[in-house]
Amino acid sequence: MSSNGVSSLPAYSWEEIAEHKEKSSRWLVIDDYVYDVTSWSKKHPGGSILLGHFAGQDATEAFAAFHRNSIDYVRKFLKPLRIGRLEKGQSLPHTDVKEDFEKLRQTAEKMGLFNSSYVFFALVLLQIFALEVGSYLVLSYYGVNWLTWIVSVFLAATAQTQLGWHQHDAGHLSVFRNNKLNRIYHIFLICFLKGTSGHWWNHMHYQHHSKPNVIGKDPDVRMDKLFLVGNVMPVEKAKEESKPSMPYQKQHNYFFLIGPPLLFPVYFQFMTFRHAYTRRLYLEGFLMILYYARVFVLLYPLLGSVGAVLVYYEVMRVIESHWFTWVTQSNHIPMTIEKDEPTGRAWLLAQLKATCNIEKSFFNDWFTGHLNFQVEHQ
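RE: above sequence
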């Protein structure tokens, strides 16, 4: 028996581990050791759902990806949860891919490719402020008419869209070298300047990155109530419903009529406040309310009525929602959308299977907030 007791741990096969994938019993594998995260999942800062997506699977690469800046600290919490190890010969396939990807990551890190540019992010924030101020000055200086109203709405929508890309960078802890500063900055951007819950965004977005284009796990493709995407989802829906609940054969006609218009102005608005309320995120809720108060205080004297302010705001969100949908879905919807594999997928292969890049150009880089480099981002 070794000093740390590792050799005395029971050995489990993948078949045994795969049996523990329900909420009542969740096991996962990290670096060939088996961990019981059933109780810990409720305390997990990233949420229990994220851990549940890897229950019964290998989570080694996901663990490294999500804790890149604090992995040594987080490992301390794993020790009490360790219950066993993988049986010999039970390692996952594609180990060569994993090793090559790790070498590539280390090379990129040595080259400084993960270092952020404060000048770049300062210019991005300055652009957002300029667009916001411009949307207000157009109405206050030139008066309210159809032309100034349209120009102002598009400036405001552009500001909010670019702010969406920028908060995405902060949410991925990419702006500052200090994680705490990134989180504070993210809350400032998404709650105070955008009126959305940062905790809700993390909750949804981390699931997307952990299981991109995986049916039942990636919230970005959880749209079968209205739309069917990929080759697997339509077949599964046909098995579930003898009579379709939607005219899916015509979804290409109604997608842009009800998809983006419902996404930001209705779904996001409801879910983000619901999340802040149910999770008792009072600071986030307060900052979100301040955003809407600011919008009302600035626009009401110019537009003259509550109804006019609401119309302005909703049109702005619809424009932003269309923009967001075009950018985010062009990277993923054309790719493979299917159910998860029993033991999970190698991180690199999962990202490449579900992601594609969009051609680089000055306009594309700006329009997408550099998310046209989706493969590198994933």
